[in-house]
Amino acid sequence: MFEDKHITLTVSGSVAAYKAALLARDLQRAGAEVRVALTAGAAQFVTAETFAALTKAPVLTDETWWRANGQIDHIELADWTDLAIAAPASANLMAQLANGLADDAASATWLATAAPKVVVPAMNTHMWQAPATQRNRQQLVSDGVHVLTPATGQLAEGYAGQGRFLEPAEIVAQIGQLGLFVPQTLAGKHVIVTAGGTRERLDPVRFLTNDSSGKMGYAVATAARQAGADVTLITAPTKLSSPAGVTVVPIESTTDLAQAVLSRFPQADALVMAAAVADFQPEVVADQKIKKTTDNDEFILKLKKTPDILKEVATIKRPKQVTVGFAAETQNLLVNGAKKLHDKSLDLLAANDVSRSDIGFNGDDNQVTFIMADGVTDQTPKTSKTLIAQALIDRVAQLLATK
Ligand code: PMT
User: 309: Cβ below 6 Å to ligand 1?
Assistant: First the structure.
């Protein structure tokens, strides 16, 4: 994730400072070369020797700053940095960084670096909620710094609240999802992504739906955003949080989805339909809750076909626009996938086998076979939906570049 990247980890005074050692190790495992700047407060909790041993590099502290070694240490470290992470960031460090103070080695390095910056707060819940800290958080965000949200749970003080340091693995995952080093292959492009399972109402309290969690579509929207696209995510109800920097359009039924897609598609460069769309909907939607009656042992529900959105999109598609579909298949993946690609005039189709419980609907992993319009196919390994989405977005960028 961070192959060959130079990461400077700024560690400040917090009970969680020892976890920064685990974070340094996890960042190294993700491919980064790590160097550490320690504040005087941090040195009360952990020693520079711990980090020097872990990173196999000198640690910048107030004691080692301005040695007569012929170099300006904070500038040398700032220039070396590809990504600056302040973790744990105490309330005091956040105040320093938000106000541009450079009165110690760690804050001077931070101020001097032009690299992307991430702050991972850790503090007492009252300090986190204090208006001054929230002002500083807002200032950092306005300055383009990514501030992760601290966890809620048991604090060192013995009571629960928000302010806990995130677990190192979670920090690495969240920073990875920021897509800081992803090539901007979709800069200037508008991409529409659909996600989740549509709901077809029977009455005010009942609906027909499917197992889609929305994870695949949200991963595609995130990957497109990371590649620099302006992204509109049209989503059926899910339990997921909105991806950062994406315009979210909530919908419920296939009819809503069709309207939302068809009205926006003319302004888009690409459309990726990852939503699991109902093929049928109740012919009549009852105004009131359907009652069970004593004289009826069965209830017959009549369904009618929904609009095929991708087929309607095909009728208004311009030559330079790219359309991508998914095919959820339980048998004959390639044959059925290729037929859908052809019937819906797609540039690319991702076929997934939804009869398997370890991929497809709901889980975090998937495996797809990409089918191109010229019939070429390419099967991915089983891997995370995040990586499948990135592979799909790479293909969308290539298609747009060649149209
Ligand atoms: O959401 P997750 O839990 O992460 O699961 C991911 C997924 C399995 C839902 C996803 O990977 C997937 O396969 N999505 C497409 C599901 C689907 O509706 O497949 P389909 O084979 O029925 O439809 C083919 C294509 O036509 C799809 O792109 C679909 O969005 C589109 N379609 C379908 C019906 C319809 N009326 N209009 C459409 O445009």
Answer: yes
- Centroid of ligand 1 to alpha carbon of 360 (angstroms): 10
Distance 278 CA to ligand 1 centre (A): 9
Which among 69, 68, 8 has a CA at the least distance from the CA of 38?
8
Q: Is residue 201 located within the same domain as residue 130? A: no
Residue 366 CA to ligand 1 centre (angstroms): 14
Point out the domain boundary residue: 124, 148, 177: 177
What is the number of the ligand 1 atom nearest to the C-alpha of 352? 13
| 51 ligand 1 Cβ < 6 A | no
* Domain carrying residue 113: 6-177
Stated pTM of the model:
0.80
- The reply to whether 210 belongs to the active site is yes
Q: Please indicate, yes or no, whether residues 260 and 168 belong to a single structural domain of this protein.
A: no
Total domain count, the chain? 2
pLDDT tens for the chain, 403 residues: list them.
899 999 999 999 999 999 999 999 999 999 999 999 999 999 999 999 999 999 999 999 999 888 777 788 999 999 999 999 999 999 999 999 999 999 999 999 999 999 999 999 999 999 999 999 999 999 999 898 999 999 998 887 888 899 999 999 999 999 988 888 889 999 999 999 999 999 999 999 999 999 999 999 999 999 999 999 999 999 999 999 888 889 999 999 999 999 999 999 999 999 999 999 999 999 999 999 998 888 888 889 999 999 999 999 999 999 999 999 999 999 999 999 999 999 999 999 999 999 999 999 999 999 999 999 999 999 999 998 988 999 999 999 999 999 9
Number of neighbours of residue 231 by Cβ within 10 angstroms = 27
Helix 91-98 to helix 105-112 angle (10° resolution) is: 40
